[in-house]
Amino acid sequence: MVCLIEEAQSQMEGSIYVRFSRLAIATLPCALLLSGMAACGGEDGVVEAEPTIPESVLWAGAVCAAFDDLLATVEAVGEGLSYEPTAEDEVYDQFFAQLQSQMADVNGAVEELAFAVGQVPMDYSDTASNVVEFGADVDAIIAAKDETLAHIEAARTAESNIDKGLEAGQAAITGGTTLSLTREFVAGLAGLLEKRKSNVDDAFSQASECQ
């Protein structure tokens, strides 16, 4: 009786071993296939992460983009401003509207550049100190713009044509000063940026917006 039980157990164990062996053999190709797919996926299926752009380079790119906008604005405004002292009210109003628009465009572009410069990363502020200091020094431009707008407002509220003409003349002068200061600012900053771009290790030479 004991022998029969042992023989039965041996047969069951052998049967289970055979089934597991067959299962292992059957699943082996699938495992190899999945392994191969994973290996291929590492080459073609997985998109490699793009290199991280340093903050200093991103900042330099933003400064160059703002600089280009300011340069385009100054070029679009034109060279000079003129007015007619004996012009009719309608002509005065057209002149004031044009001058106000020009001052708004210049002011917006200047402030946008100053803001971009002010976002310099802390660990790069010393390295880029010349650009930061120059780019943030826009007080004279803003003051001239404000004076221009003040003369425009005074001209519009003047009680006589003589006073209106005088204020219009001053608005033209200070508006011209605003543009002149802005052009000097643009030229000076352009020189700084060109020097920095000549250094291949500088952030301004690596930013695509600065090329």
Low-confidence runs of at least 5 consecutive residues: 1-41
Task: Summarize the main sheet.
Answer: none
As a percent range, the share of helical residues equals: over 70%
Task: Sketch the topology as an H/E string, one letter per element.
Answer: HHHHHHH
Quaternary arrangement of the chains shown? single chain
What is the SS-derived class?
mainly alpha
- Fraction of residues in β-strands: under 5%
- Output the number of helix runs: 7
Number of domains: 2
Number of DSSP E strands: 0
Please write out the topology.
Elements: H1 2-45, H2 55-77, H3 89-118, H4 129-136, H5 139-156, H6 161-197, H7 203-206
Helix pairs in contact: 2-3, 2-6, 3-4, 3-5, 3-6, 4-6, 5-6
